[in-house]
Specification:
Length: 104
């Protein structure tokens, strides 16, 4: 038996996850180069929203590895924001690279 009408749209979890990783990465670069506190605050807001989207998308994909990598990124971002050292910056970038390669 078939039900007439349009087929439901496929979930866009994978695409949403990749877009949120890219947006996070752009904002992370922006927070490093901005000298204006208000602009830095906006970048941090975008990064936090991107983390939420990553969580929702990874949950929708039922991908525990992506969830774990997103959690690592969140923790390392907080460390970077508390103390923006080169070491913390590199760790966030490593997390981003891992997320990007894992989500492709």
């Amino acid at each position: 038996m078939t039900i007439p009408g349009e087929a439901p749209e496929q979930p866009t979890y994978h695409k949403d996850f990749q877009e949120s990783v890219n947006l996070f990465e752009k904002s992370f670069k922006g927070v490093q180069t901005s000298s204006f506190d208000a602009q830095r605050a906006q970048y941090v807001t975008v990064m936090n929203e991107s983390l939420k989207t990553m969580q929702e998308s990874a949950s929708g994909l039922v991908n525990d590895r992506l969830i774990s990598l997103k959690n690592d990124l969140s923790k390392d971002l907080n460390k970077y924001l508390d103390a923006p050292t080169t070491e913390h910056q590199e760790k966030v970038q490593q997390d981003l690279d891992s997320l990007k390669s894992e989500s492709e």
